[in-house]
Amino acid sequence: MTKPMRRIATFALTTATVFTGMATVNAPANAAAPGDAAAILRACGLEAGNTHRSGNEIVGSGRSTGSPCAGRFNLEIQRKRWLGWETVKKGDGAANGTWQYIRYNCAKTGTHTFRTLVKGRIAGKYLSDFSNETRQNCGK
Which DSSP state fits 115? Predict the structure, then answer.
């Protein structure tokens, strides 16, 4: 190989190595390859929103995360009792990524700590999540 040809070959090899290294460094460690169904399913999940009071209602929310993730989930507003958590309102939602809301009228029930439980099978996995806990005086 002549000296100019060696220079061209060395330049091409060095350039290819640099660009390949850059592509590897910049790729996210958890990125799924196109068509990697298992990675897509691992990204599916459930998320409980912020439980809060609006007037006489305790409002809870939840949604599925990831896309596309098939399935349905349940929403439950719970209040803390001496024996554990009591479900006072139930609802359900579809795994389409939009927030689903549930409301419980707490008027004249006294002071309680409330939370929202979101649970269900999404993409074949049983998942659950809890919201924050909020103590509210709903009157007597």
Answer: E
